[in-house]
Amino acid sequence: MKSDKSEVLKEFRTLPGVGKVIAEDLWNLGVRSKLELAKLDPEKLYEEICEYQGTKVDLCMLYVFRCAVYVSATPDPEPEKMKWWFWKDKQLV
């Protein structure tokens, strides 16, 4: 398992929607690889980041987590699903 922080953060930044700040957030939540991320529940990650930051984080973070978990878990991800906004909650009309 990777444990060199700079290498792990660099790996996370290859995921759609994940930049320096979100990569650091994943690290702070204890995630150490994309392989590990692939096995996690994005809803739980969102709850954990809200708790970690002591506030309700913007829902865009949840959408990025959903996308990142999907891409990490999927060998050949669909291009449309590699956009974080694909993972937004559907509006009820």
TrEMBL record:
<protein>
    <submittedName>
        <fullName>Pathogenicity locus</fullName>
    </submittedName>
</protein>
<dbReference type="Pfam" id="PF11731">
    <property type="entry name" value="Cdd1"/>
</dbReference>
<dbReference type="InterPro" id="IPR021725">
    <property type="entry name" value="Cdd1"/>
</dbReference>
